[in-house]
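Next comes this protein:
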Amino acid sequence: MQQVAKEAQDADAMLMQAVAAYRDAPQYQLQVTGAIIVRFETITRNKRCALAYLNERMNKLKDVWWEAGRILPEEIKTCLSQHEIDVFSRYDDIMGKYMRECGVNLIADQQPPKSLHIEVAVKEDCGEVLTEHGPVILKKNTRHLIRRSDCELLIKQGMLEQVGPTLQ
């Protein structure tokens, strides 16, 4: 992105030099006009490409939010700039506020469940997790039968793993 910005600044500077140099030379007006148009179109094209690239990156960040949840995975976070991390955080704030106002968790149950409960294996210690039926202590290498909505985020984060078929 910095290179595109520098190219645009350089093209703009060259444009201004051409205009200043040939301002009082009517015999070169046609050539200067052509050069101005070419440089302007170059700047415009680079700007459109940069904006399309940034828009695609923002859409990918939104997709990560929907797939991974409200916590940005470390392996993705290391590939982002600070501005992109800020965008993810602001998007999370906006969606969190919307979910609180509506009283609906948009992240949970994105796929319709076959059953309300699933069997999960705990891959990492999660400590005490509050479920709809009360607290459950999730220790590493244990298995539990838990409501899908209570553990879906932990599965997405890789702390739990669904095992066996779901109950019908």
Remarks:
- DSSP finds five helices and five strands in the chain.
- The chain has two domains: 2-102, 117-162.
- Helices lie at 2-21, 29-68, 74-77, 82-102, 148-156.
- The beta strands are 117-122, 127-131, 134-138, 143-147, 160-162.
